[in-house]
Automatic annotation (TrEMBL):
Protein name as catalogued: HTH tetR-type domain-containing protein
Source domain of life: Bacteria
GO MF assignments: DNA-binding transcription factor activity; transcription cis-regulatory region binding
Stretches assigned to the HTH tetR-type domain: 16-76
Keywords for this protein: DNA-binding, Transcription, Transcription regulation
Residues annotated to bind DNA: 39-58
Length: 190
């Protein structure tokens, strides 16, 4: 990775750095102004760029959100693969509980924005994988024939953003313990 004060050597490095800056600025503006109220022009102005310069990199906010969601999508996919490698039971549950707690804690800023903004929450869910990813999580947690209570439990578990946001800035180890206890209870739904 190029140090922040070093001039990028290649065009590809400049493009990557510009895209990273756009995503970072967009996330800040989404938090401050709201997802719906933030335009590509707002992002360009904040960066000192023209709107066409931002548009060169991203055709719209959903594309920016897709890049914001990529680490979540990748982490969740890897978590599901690790869990699937275990038979249904305590080891699989431990992998899921720990992984989900870590994922939510690593994305606390997203959780705050999602708690406050329905439009961001809906767009982020689409970017992460939509309903299909939830169906996969349900199947990995409970097996191929989950009942209605189990399906509801997973939908509830993946909506903890507002609750996590409402808990404020408690130490991470306390929030992790709370999340893990909650996810264990959810995973035990019969």
């Amino acid at each position: 990775m190029t140090p922040p004060d070093a001039e990028p050597r290649t065009r590809a490095e400049r493009v990557r750095q510009t895209r990273e800056r756009i995503v970072s600025v967009a996330l800040t503006l989404f938090a401050e102004k709201g997802y719906e109220a933030t335009s590509l022009q707002d992002i360009a102005s904040e960066m000192g760029l023209t709107k066409p310069a931002v548009y060169y990199h991203y055709r719209g906010k959903q594309e920016i959100l897709n890049d914001l969601a990529e680490p979540v999508r990748t982490t969740l996919s890897e978590l599901l693969d690790r869990a699937r490698a275990q038979p249904l039971g305590p080891q699989r549950t431990d992998i899921l509980v720990t992984g989900l707690a870590d994922l939510f804690l690593a994305r606390r800023k997203f959780a705050r924005i999602m708690a406050q903004q329905a439009a961001f929450r809906d767009a982020m869910r689409t970017a992460v994988g939509g309903p299909g990813i939830l169906d996969t999580l349900i199947e990995v947690t409970y097996g191929p024939n989950p009942n209605l209570d189990q399906r509801f439990a997973i939908y509830s578990a993946t909506s903890v953003g507002p609750a996590l946001s409402a808990l404020g800035d408690h130490p991470e180890e306390q929030l992790r313990a709370v999340l893990m206890r909650a996810f264990r209870r959810i995973a035990s739904v019969q």
